[in-house]
């Protein structure tokens, strides 16, 4: 079954949560997804069964009030996984390395891109900008002269994350054969983006020093899923009561494999470490595809 955006949007609208969008940390994923279930509900028709006939219902007064609900459940996570797998394959064929940047709103994803794009030298880069509404971030990146595609989830129910089908559509607007690297700036949220594979090569999570040392413990999935954590806005540390060693310890507790880089897009401190990680990962991917 194809990802049906209109259907999904109808379910998402108002709460930004798709059907079958279970949070694996709290609930088992929907196993019985992708079925249509006919369920009869009838005020005053206690004891009615799905096999009662219309005539029966007609003969028994209150059942005239019966109404039929059709509940359709899609396992969007499963749908998403398959779309992400084919996008990953397409990006591999094209030799494009994609990085999914995730954080809570305001941690500094766009500021990081503003600081990074002019420092990439010969690397051919493009950006997909994800937000619920507005093209503000795409406009911030326009002066850098790289292809930028804005993805708004607002028309699809205002999702709190980017889903793979929207990312795949947006990738088709990029000249993939002429690119080495695509940054995907996800919708600002520390929970939902972690659950949705976008076919990226690496997930990178940003956490700013104003958000608190406890966030890896409170929102562990996004830190477990990521290869690199960027501790951002370190220029603000002198003004804060922030325990950096404790944050690093919390990150290690949640994911001992996680690489950690501290940086400030404002002062430029730490950007070299980030760029080194980037070029090492990109170089490794290019060598592997030779
Ligand atoms: N002091 C300081 N402010 C920053 C830094 N990076 C981003 N900001 C500010 O934080 C706010 C949110 O940044 P933005 O890049 O839009 O975050 P995003 O929502 O994750 O894309 C903006 O006001 C930025 O100027 C930084 O390294 N230092
Ligand atoms: Mg942004």
Give a structural overview:
33% of the residues lie in helices and 18% in strands. By secondary structure, it is α/β, with parallel strands linked by helices. The protein folds into 2 domains: 72 residues, no CATH class; 213 residues, Rossmann fold. The strands form 2 sheets. A 7-stranded parallel β-sheet has the order 5-4-6-3-7-8-9, with helices on both faces. It has a two-stranded antiparallel ribbon with strand order 1-2. The longest helix is centred in the first third of the chain and has 19 residues. The N terminus is likely disordered. The site of magnesium ion has 4 residues, from helix 4.
Distance between the termini: 36 Å
Q: Return the structural class.
A: alpha/beta
CATH architecture of the largest domain, by name, is 3-Layer(aba) Sandwich
Q: Could you name the CATH class of the largest domain? A: Alpha Beta
Per the principal axes of the C-alpha atoms, what is the gross shape? globular
Oligomer: single chain
Number of helix segments? 10
Number of domains as seen in the coordinates: 2
CATH names the topology of the largest domain as Rossmann fold
| Radius of gyration over C-alpha positions, nearest whole angstrom | 23 Å
Q: Strand order, biggest sheet?
A: 5-4-6-3-7-8-9
Q: Which ranges are low-confidence, i.e. pLDDT below 50, for 5 or more consecutive residues?
A: 1-5, 7-62
* Number of DSSP E strands: 9
Strand content: 15-25%
What is the CATH homology-level superfamily of the largest domain? P-loop containing nucleotide triphosphate hydrolases
How is the main sheet built? 7 strands, parallel
Average pLDDT score: 82
